[in-house]
Specification:
The complex is a heterotrimer.
Chain A (H helix, E strand, L loop, with lengths): L1 H28 L4 H6 L5 H10 L6 H13 L14 H6 L1 H29 L4 H15 L2 H19 L16 H34 L2 H8 L4 H19 L1 H18 L5 H10 L3 H29 L7
Chain B lengths: L3 E14 L2 E14 L3 E5 L6 H9 L6 E10 L2 E2 L5 H7 L4 E4 L13 H12 L5 H14 L5 H4 L9 H13 L5 E5 L7 H18 L2 E6 L2 H7 L2 E6 L2 E7 H6 L4 H9 L39 H5 L5 E2 L6 E2 L6
Parallel strand pairs in B: 3-8, 3-9, 6-7, 7-8
Antiparallel strand pairs in B: 1-2, 1-4, 4-5, 9-10, 10-12, 11-12
Chain C lengths: L22 H10 L15 H11 L1 H24 L6 E2 L6 E2 L1 H4 L29 H37 L1 H16 L2 H20 L11 H30 L2 H8 L4 H37 L11 H10 L6 H28 L6
Antiparallel strand pairs in C: 1-2
Helix pairs in contact in C: 2-12, 3-5, 3-12, 5-6, 5-8, 5-10, 5-11, 6-8, 7-8, 8-10, 9-10, 10-11, 10-12, 11-12
The chains are: A mainly alpha, B alpha/beta, C mainly alpha.
């Protein structure tokens, strides 16, 4: 088991290097000259050369990359192009708790709603419960997140207009607070972000449960006289959950991607929203930083799901 | 004749599939006495497994037990509710299956899977006691270093050893009847012999009756006192083992015995397969199910279905109008 | 012998994540330990391809979906020319000019006097915020989606098959490279990568590519970049699939036979392996088409794809979203069209997977 984890860890390290390298290269080749931008009106050759040296921008690319990596470890993402005296980390700092809140709730919802729905569908396979459930899930899975977001917003607007309520369709309340007003802001975006993943897991869970319930060891469990509930939840479920756990990384990746649309359409000032705004103002360091942060988060998520996998499945010893 | 521990009367189990109704078990009757080993022999698809599962009432959609009585210890299993059935399974009647590689849950230790049965059926037993019993059982089925190996997972055992674990699970609560559905078919021949010998020894030691299902006539010869032969969902012959081999009555049994190659056959002797095709369970012919392949078939065989009638002396019976 | 009823394709709802055979049918198999009495079906002398196509034809949902998609393609291709000939002259309130349908039924023609109008005889689906004809923009948007999707798919299939086959057949460095590349692409959420690239290099791509003849300076230049990036993100998955299949095929006896009879590796690959890959590639490509269309729409929605005056389904949704409280119609129309496209591909892809590989239980 340790061997497996070590191998995976090394692989992921490689991936992190790859990811950081790619983001670095993007920044390296980005159009525009940051030093020029900084000097602006006060351009003169000497100042240009001096400033370039100060920021290490006259070094060969591999040294720049090394500096970049070192900085990353201290969460130093450089200075913003737009706000020339503000650190990128400061700019993003306000967005982190918001995106974290959005993402955590979405993930939680995915697991608490998606998995039980899948199990229910499997236990009542081919009844009307199963059929309607899976049809709904199919639609939620197929429809793109941003389309769903729009439909939900239209719905809310319609409700507001018909009943005179004032449920908001944009902005976020206070991070990690849950007054009624906060909930009103947060409910829709979280549900929409989670929808795709809920559908994915519901369908996956159903498939896996049905597959597992056919297995010989489930028959053995019944033949031992175990009660049906135990057979389902102790014997079947435990096995069906294994592929769920291995796909947690993928689910995380899709949540990260979806967050961009949600934060854009619902006007939420999380890091994805901030990054999107900075695209318009050509503030590349911010884009770079957001990409690195999110990519590394997904990589860590993959590592976590690998670790959980070894815990849950005793057959994993050597890769 | 001692009263039967298990008595199956006119069991019928059908499967209602999209292609039609499959009569997997069509009017089967037999009995097992306490402590004895009954062999059920037949080719694939003859209904032996379905019979076993019917006794355990583990038949799921689209299958259904449509008729018959299954008397165990004088009580009809068909009358019992779900709770009573789960109480029965694993503690009074146990079953082991054909493929040991997939019959054990891969995510729990073998010790756990044995102890689980014990705790289920003996409410007053503590966790430690159940675990000790599990180790005891592993010892009994001759798994070396049982104490340590109880903490291993199924994938750490070979096929033969997994089947021993299955036997351990099934005997943990000292059942009166053990149903073994082709327990050695998936194993090497040498392991086969070991497992059969183990089962025989345990059955003797604990007085457990065994219903041994197999398609292998050789297996039956060494382990059983009585045998029934099944074909196309019917019992076609039933006899004590010696009589079956020495004086087979039903043409099918005769055909089976003749088709086995013998060690003392001459070189160049041809094998004698049974002519014809396997039976069609969707549309069985109205008369004797073996009629299409029987070398002694007469007109009557096509029209009427023969019942089991006594043949010769003793308890041998065959479902044939023209037995040997 | 009776002929059994044809085993119809059972479209269980577990479609996209792999089909689970109807549990009702299974328990009999497992329980009775006997194979279902499979009765012989008369063998039809057809190629596997014809067999697959026949199976596909029988799948009603897939066929209807295919029909809808073909219809959309046709509309996108021949709709605009036709639409631009329908309608009489019209006086533009703002410029005072008289224009014909070639103008006001064009997707980039803005008429600020006719903003946010509902469907009418003149504007069949109404107008948007800038007075542009929604139907025209819709057709253009679908056209853009088609082009991007095709471009990406060609990229994906060509690269995917070539690298995948080489990796599977020869192993070694190519295989290692593919594995590492795929790892990175898996870890780096595709959308993130595209946003980053399109965000940083978008405007340069605009100016760079608008010099390319066909594309021109009409807001579509950036799509070439988006297309390339989408292709880069997707091909590793196709390649992995192809590699897996190649590994399997490589071990099969007909390949061994070819090799022992002295066929060169190139020939083996081209004659024996690639043709057997096609079915799996076709199914994957179909599903990827759907993902690409959604991807492009998403990118355009974020403002990183098509630029004004160009149109894309995603751009229309973004534009319409600004008016969501006053004129929800403007955002709903492109949403419905996009959803319809996706659902059709969903059912079609399902049907194709069943038709080309009915054994796949995944």
């Amino acid at each position: 088991m340790v061997q497996f984890l070590v191998k995976r860890f090394i692989g992921l390290l490689f991936v992190v290097v790859g990811v950081t390298f790619i983001t670095f290269i993007m920044g390296y080749f980005a159009p525009g000259d940051p030093v020029l931008l900084m000097l602006g009106q006060h351009y003169n050759q000497a100042a240009y050369v001096a400033l370039k040296h100060v920021y290490g921008l006259d070094l060969p690319w591999y040294q720049q990359y090394w500096n970049y990596l070192k900085n990353l470890f201290t969460f130093n993402f450089g200075l913003s192009y737009e706000y020339k005296d503000r650190a990128v980390s400061a700019i993003l700092a306000s967005g982190v708790p918001i995106s974290l809140e959005l993402g955590s709730w979405a993930l939680l919802l995915t697991l608490i709603v998606g998995l039980p729905l899948g199990i229910l569908s499997a236990l009542k396979a081919n009844t009307w419960v199963d059929t309607t459930n899976m049809t709904v899930m199919l639609i939620l899975f197929a429809v793109p997140t941003f389309v769903l977001a729009v439909f939900v917003q239209v719905f809310i607007v319609w409700i507001d207009q018909s009943t005179g309520a004032s449920w908001p369709v944009s902005n976020w309340g206070t991070p990690w607070h849950y007054s009624w007003s906060d909930i009103q802001y947060k409910l829709a975006p979280i549900i929409v972000l989670a929808a795709g993943a809920v559908a994915f897991y519901a369908r996956l869970m159903r498939t896996q449960m049905l597959e597992v319930l056919r297995q010989d060891y489930v028959r053995t469990a019944r033949a031992k006289g175990l009660r049906e509930r135990i057979v389902i939840y102790r014997h079947a479920l435990r096995n069906a959950l294994i592929p769920i756990i291995t796909t947690l990384g993928v689910a995380l990746g899709s949540l990260v991607g979806g967050a961009f649309f949600i934060e854009d359409l619902f006007n939420i000032p999380g890091i994805a929203g901030i990054a999107l705004n900075s695209i318009g103002t050509r503030d590349y360091p911010v884009i770079q930083a957001t990409t690195v942060i999110l990519a590394v988060a997904v990589v860590l998520g993959n590592l976590l799901s690998d670790i959980l996998y070894t815990v849950v499945d005793p057959r994993i010893k050597v890769e | 004749m001692a009263e039967n521990l298990l008595e199956v009367n006119n069991l019928k189990t059908y499967f209602y599939t999209r292609g039609g109704t499959v009569k997997a078990v069509d009017d089967v009757s037999f009995g097992i006495r306490a402590g004895e080993t009954l062999g059920i022999v037949g080719e694939s698809g003859c209904g032996k497994s379905v019979t076993a599962l019917s006794i355990m009432r583990l038949i799921a959609r689209p299958g259904k037990i449509v008729a018959g009585e299954i008397n165990f210890n004088g009580e009809d299993i068909m009358e019992k509710n779900q709770n009573e059935l789960t109480d029965l399974r694993g503690s009074k009647i146990s079953m082991i299956f054909q493929d040991p590689m997939t019959s054990l849950n891969p995510v729990y230790t073998v010790g756990f899977q044995i102890a689980e049965t014990v705790k289920r059926h003996r409410k007053d037993v503590t966790h430690e006691q159940a675990w000790r019993r599990a180790v005891e059982m592993l010892d009994l089925v001759r798994i070396p270093d049982a104490k340590r190996r109880a903490k291993n997972y199924p994938h750490e055992f070979s096929g033969g050893m997994r089947q021993r674990v299955m036997i351990a699970i099934s005997l943990a609560c000292n059942p009166q009847l053990l149903i073994a559905d082709e327990p050695t078919t998936a194993l090497d021949v040498t392991i086969q012999a070991q497992i059969l010998e183990l089962m025989k020894g345990l059955s003797k030691e604990f007085g457990t009756a065994v219903m041994l299902i197999t398609h292998d006539l050789g297996v039956v010869a060494g382990s059983c006192q009585d045998v029934i032969v099944m074909y196309a969902g019917h019992v076609v012959e039933s006899a004590p083992v010696k009589q079956l081999y020495e004086t087979p009555a039903h043409p099918y049994t005769i055909g089976l015995l003749q088709s086995i190659p013998r060690l003392d056959d001459q070189r160049g002797v041809k094998l004698n397969p049974i002519a014809g095709q396997p039976p069609d369970l969707l549309n069985p012919p109205p008369g004797c199910p073996y009629a299409p392949r029987c070398p002694r078939v007469q007109t009557r065989c096509w029209q009427e279905r023969p019942e089991l009638v006594q043949v010769g002396r003793g308890t041998q019976a065959a479902a044939c109008f023209y037995p040997s | 012998m009776d002929t059994r009823k044809e085993q119809g394709q059972d479209l269980a709802q577990g479609a996209m994540l792999g089909r689970v055979p109807d549990p009702a049918m299974i328990s009999m198999d497992e329980v009775s330990g006997m194979a279902e009495p499979e009765l012989e079906r008369s063998k039809r002398p057809a190629t596997p391809l014809q067999d697959s196509l026949r199976r596909l034809r029988r799948d009603k949902r897939a066929m209807v979906s295919l029909g809808i998609l073909v219809f959309m393609v046709l509309i996108a291709l021949i709709g605009p020319p036709i639409y631009q000939h329908i309608g009489g002259p019209y006086v533009n309130q703002i410029t005072g000019q008289t224009v014909g349908p070639q103008s006001y039924h064009n997707y980039y023609y803005e008429n600020l006097a006719d903003q946010d109008q509902g469907p009418s005889a003149q504007y069949w689906l109404g107008t948007d915020q800038l007075g542009r004809d929604i139907l025209a923009r819709l057709m253009q948007g679908i056209l853009v989606s088609i082009f991007v999707a095709l471009f990406v798919e060609v990229f994906d299939v060509v690269l995917g098959i070539s690298i995948g086959v080489l990796a599977g057949y020869y192993g070694g460095l190519i295989d290692q490279f593919l594995a590492r590349f795929t790892d990175i692409m898996l870890a780096f959420p595709g959308l993130l990568f595209i946003i980053m690239v399109a965000g940083i290099f978008g405007s340069s791509a605009d100016s760079f590519f608008s010099h390319v003849p066909v594309i021109g300076p009409n807001g579509n230049a950036r799509l070439l970049l988006v297309g390339i990036v989408l292709g880069i993100v997707i091909w590793p998955f196709t390649a992995r699939l192809v590699r897996g299949q190649t590994l399997q095929l490589k071990e099969q006896q007909f390949v061994e036979a070819a090799r022992t009879s002295g066929t060169t590796n190139t020939r083996i690959i081209l004659r024996h392996i690639v043709p057997n890959l096609l079915s799996i590639v076709v199914v994957t490509a179909t599903l990827n088409l759907s993902n690409t269309i959604v991807g492009e729409a998403g990118i355009s929605l974020l403002g990183l794809g098509v630029q004004p005056p160009g149109s894309s389904l995603g751009k229309m949704i973004a534009d319409g979203a600004q008016n969501i409280t006053s004129y929800p119609r403007e955002v709903i129309i492109p949403c419905i069209v996009l959803t319809l496209i996706v659902l059709c591909f969903c059912f079609l892809g399902d049907g194709m997977r069943d038709a080309f590989d009915p054994r796949s239980k995944d």
